[in-house]
Amino acid sequence: MLIGVSFIPFIFSSEHYKGMNLSVKDYVKNYQLKDFLTFVFKGYNSIGVKMVWPAYLAVIIGGSINIGGAGSLMALGSAATSIAIGKITTSANQLKIISTGMALAAISYIGMAFVTTPVTAFAVAIMNGIGYTAGNVPIYSKTVNHAEQDDLIEYFAVREFAMGLGRVIAVLVTIAAFSIWEGDLRFLAAFSTLAISVLGTGYIGSRM
């Protein structure tokens, strides 16, 4: 309800009030496929890691402190890396940074399937935060450049749709993995798909 009420002021705004001369069909048709697929992979990773990693920690290690601590270290690694990568990234080294970062993130996902102690959980969490962020910063820079070349609002609207599609696929694949396999094997399968998702993000995103 509160969300709905928050839109009321926009009714009295002239911006986009009379609609836009835009054909959704034509816009989607002209949308870069590489951009769309990159966002699908990013959406897959974003929701997949939030489901599989905490579930694994709860089942294998247990304890809210371990789950929260691993999540905090992942976020800390991401924040520190985003600042550093933003300063050193150039057009000449973009591909190398994306490839190295996403490869590191993929390795960390596989490593998550073999975590048995809080210390190793914290280690792979930091590794994942650093690797994924390092690869994602140059890709996000490409995203902003493409959005500025097109219509900013419409570009990000399609981006959110693609990421939403990736999230739905992640949920379905995770459910399937947990239904088909049992024990540690189901987690290994789920983490493997996350590794594939970041490699896909890096491969296609570097070519946006």
Account of the 3D structure:
The chain is mainly alpha-helical. The protein has one domain (40-205): MFS general substrate transporter like domains (Growth Hormone, Chain: A, Up-down Bundle). The protein contains 9 helices and no strands. It has helices spanning 2-6, 8-11, 24-30, 33-61, 64-88, 94-112, 118-149, 152-180, 184-205. Helix 4 runs antiparallel to helix 5, helix 5 (64-88) crosses helix 7 and helix 7 runs parallel beside helix 9. The protein is globular. The N and C termini lie far apart (39 Å).
Name its key features.
single chain; 208 residues; mainly alpha; Growth Hormone, Chain: A; 9 helices; globular
Low-confidence stretches: none
Briefly note the structural class of the backbone: mainly alpha
User: What is the CATH H-level superfamily?
Assistant: MFS general substrate transporter like domains
Q: Give the number of domains.
A: 1
Query: What's the story with the biggest beta sheet?
Result: none
Rg from Cα? 19 Å
Short structural summary:
83% of the residues lie in helices and 0% in strands. With 208 residues, the protein is mainly alpha-helical.
Set out the fold topology.
Elements: H1 2-6, H2 8-11, H3 24-30, H4 33-61, H5 64-88, H6 94-112, H7 118-149, H8 152-180, H9 184-205
Helix pairs in contact: 4-5, 4-8, 4-9, 5-7, 6-7, 6-9, 7-8, 7-9, 8-9
